[in-house]
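thought: fold this chain, then report.
action: predict
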Amino acid sequence: MGKPFDTTLRHLLEAYPADWLRLLGIQASGPVTLVDTNLSTLSAEADKVFKLLEPSPWMLHVEFQSGYEADLPDRVHLYNTLVHHRHGLPVDSVVMLLRREADGPAMTGELQRHTPRRQNLRFVYDVLRVWQLSSDSILANGLGTLPLAPLTDDAKPRIAQVIRDVERRLVEDEVEPLEANSLWTAAYVLMGLRYPTDFAKTLLQGVRTMKESATYQAIVAEGKAAGLAEGLAEGLAEGLAEGLAEGLAEGKAEGLVEGSRATLLRVGSRRLGVPNSPTLATLQGIRDFDQLQRLTERLLDVSTWDELLG
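observation:
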């Protein structure tokens, strides 16, 4: 699964492991730690691996999929085997299909191999189809899985209400602005799996807490360009225009800064993936218009947010 969905989901699993375990029906009786997923001996990398420190420790491997791949069960089996080989613990694997396009005949939850003499492999894994989940159950779960709520079948006919319910959870839980911003960013990115970009943009612009976030500023600045180069030029022009209007109305240069930051976030999210909370905090702390412009211009020359800010 390619960016930006994998980056977004990996960040959510890193920040909220307990919430995702509950969604998968796993009640951990001890601490849960993240494990390095780079299986470099075969140039392979699983999406996320957890170590459950229970009386009988075990590993949980989670793999996300947004498109159909008939050989996915073989790859999941490979990751499962490599994780077991590296850590010496039992490993369960879960495949999360993010949309119907990822489903197909191979997604049975079981991989079998036979020789002419006998069956020599039977590998069982779980398959979770996100669109079949209840949006209400996701909304009642932890914060870390809230961005999945708009992807369910039962959310689609009442999507505006589901977005308001997400906002209500963030308000009721008194979520800090930076954390709320990160969750809204994830929701916006993941909605691209099921809804047109313009629809998602329009829907989220009506959310009060969204308007207060850097993500809303990025959405306002979003142009129609599909490529990074075109998006950079168009988004910069729109962001600066909006910033100039605000700055003139308020009699200060703050509008220019906000418009430039919005462009940086929008184009940077497309180029580098959704920024995590520390990165967002750093970007929010930059008040110099010229510095924001220079960072935006450097997006084509870097491959990570850390490299950009470094």
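thought: worth noting. The first helix runs from residue 5 to 15.
final: tokens above.
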